[in-house]
TrEMBL record:
It comes from Limnobacter humi. SUPFAM superfamilies: DNA methylase specificity domain. It comes from the Bacteria. Residues 383-410 form a coiled coil. Keywords: Coiled coil, DNA-binding, Endonuclease, Hydrolase, Nuclease, Restriction system. Residues 10-191, 218-391 form the Type I restriction modification DNA specificity domain. Its EC number is 3.1.21.-. One of its GO terms (molecular function) is endonuclease activity. Pfam families: Methylase_S. Belongs to the type-I restriction system S methylase family. This is Restriction endonuclease subunit S.
């Protein structure tokens, strides 16, 4: 089934099938769990194909060198464009996306991914950008089949036709988008470096390796349980009983609610408890500090709305004069990985109040505590500003890309002079 674009092709553009500019293609190798190694020859997982045009592999995957040699037909390098025609997610958000491989790298394809050799009639970078365009994504969604594991048949993928400009205009569009990519990449590096600087600062200021000027009190720590009350949340049972819920009232804090907000604050929830539900849970109010202790462990949030927490959270109550909740927020943030490692095994890892109470907190004046917290707040403010700039750049590039790749916005080339 061939799906064509649904707008008038711009002057000088022509319909091209994907097959017309694919010289050759390679399929993925059949990897079993026994074929994977902790090191060896790198494998491209399907989730490595993401929006943006370049291969993104956060967690490297490897197979043995011998497997790679016996599956040379699935090897790809920078001469290939990689696409995925299979997705475990029912909506298939990444299916059909095309990405480049950086120079000097070589991979084995996993099943569901393909390596395309692009001929002289298509700029590979332009094709990768095209795969992120709205007409292309719409075409991919229309030819997807399957439910639990959606996929696209190779023949139907190659048959798809899109309006494409001349090579000169393709090259110019790819050049423009590459400039945006470089700006985005520079901002991403700035963001990563800012996060690293904050982490290094926390390592110094939260361990006593570095003290603020004017504070000479000997550095020591004390158990958190000596500084505040640690109260675990509670859930009304059975949780499926609709009488515990309402369309308004106190918010019912879910893990997804606290992880969806990048700020230190919890401001909204998707569910609310009825008065009966509230009576069987634990109330929290504006200014309270809570922390997740189940599944996603160690996420601290300052509550900004009347709410209730279930037993996947704790709230820190009645802080002594020797405890700054502002600094406690950053102490928790600093030791999140350590807390996750201390979680009790089970269907979901979790902490109890005793483990939380063992957290070591700096035994220094509250004045120094607040000053340290303020330094971290400034670092967060800088990180937040960079993150917002990055979001803006990505949004602006995407808007420009949709115009350039549909011909709504044209570029001048030497051919047009």
């Amino acid at each position: 089934m061939t799906v064509q674009i649904h707008y008038q092709a711009p002057l000088g553009w022509e319909l091209k099938s994907i097959a017309s500019f694919v010289e050759n293609y390679k399929g993925g190798a059949s990897l079993t769990p026994d074929d994977f190694r902790e090191s060896g020859f790198p494998v491209i997982p399907k989730k490595g194909v993401q929006e943006g045009g370049w291969l993104v592999i956060d967690e490297p995957t490897y197979c043995s060198e011998s497997f790679a040699e016996s599956n040379a037909q699935s090897k790809v390098d920078s001469n290939h464009v990689v696409v995925t025609l299979r997705d475990l997610v029912p909506s298939g958000p990444s299916i059909g996306l095309a990405v480049r491989i950086q120079q000097g790298l070589e991979f084995i394809l996993s099943q569901g991914t393909y390596g395309l050799e692009i001929n002289e009639f298509m700029n590979p970078d332009y094709f990768c950008a095209l795969s992120n365009s709205q007409p292309y994504r719409k075409a991919m969604r229309r030819i997807m089949v399957g439910s639990t594991q959606v996929h696209i048949r190779t023949g139907e993928f190659l048959d798809q036709k899109f309006a494409c400009p001349s090579m000169a205009e393709q090259n110019k569009i790819a050049e423009i988008l590459s400039a945006w990519d470089k700006s985005i990449e520079a901002t991403e590096r700035l963001l990563e470096n800012s996060k690293k600087r904050k982490k290094a600062l926390m390592q110094q200021l939260l361990t006593g390796k570095k003290r603020l000027p004017g504070f000479k009190q000997p550095w020591s720590t004390t158990k958190l349980s000596t500084l505040c009350e640690i109260r675990r949340g509670a859930s009304p049972r059975p949780i499926s009983d609709p009488s515990y819920f309402s369309d308004s009232g106190r918010g019912w804090v879910r893990i997804s609610d606290v992880t969806s907000d990048e700020t230190p604050f919890f401001r909204k929830t998707s569910q609310y408890l009825s008065p009966l539900g509230e009576s069987k849970s634990v109330k929290v109010n504006d200014g309270d500090l809570i922390m997740s202790i189940c599944a996603t462990i160690g996420v601290p949030k300052f509550v900004k709305i009347p709410a209730c927490i279930h037993d996947g959270f704790v709230v820190f109550r009645n802080p002594s004069d020797s405890l700054s909740l502002n600094l406690l927020y950053y102490v928790i943030q600093f030791i999140t990985d350590k807390l996750d490692g201390e979680g009790q095994p089970g269907t979901q890892r979790n902490l109890n109040t005793s483990i939380v109470g063992e957290i070591q907190f700096p035994k220094i004046t509250t004045e120094e505590q607040e000053m340290i917290a303020e330094i971290f707040k400034l670092a967060d403010s800088s990180i937040g500003a960079i993150n917002e700039r990055l979001k803006s750049l990505r949004k602006e590039k995407d808007a420009l890309m949709q115009q350039l790749l549909t011909g709504k916005k044209r570029v001048f080339t030497s051919e047009a002079i």
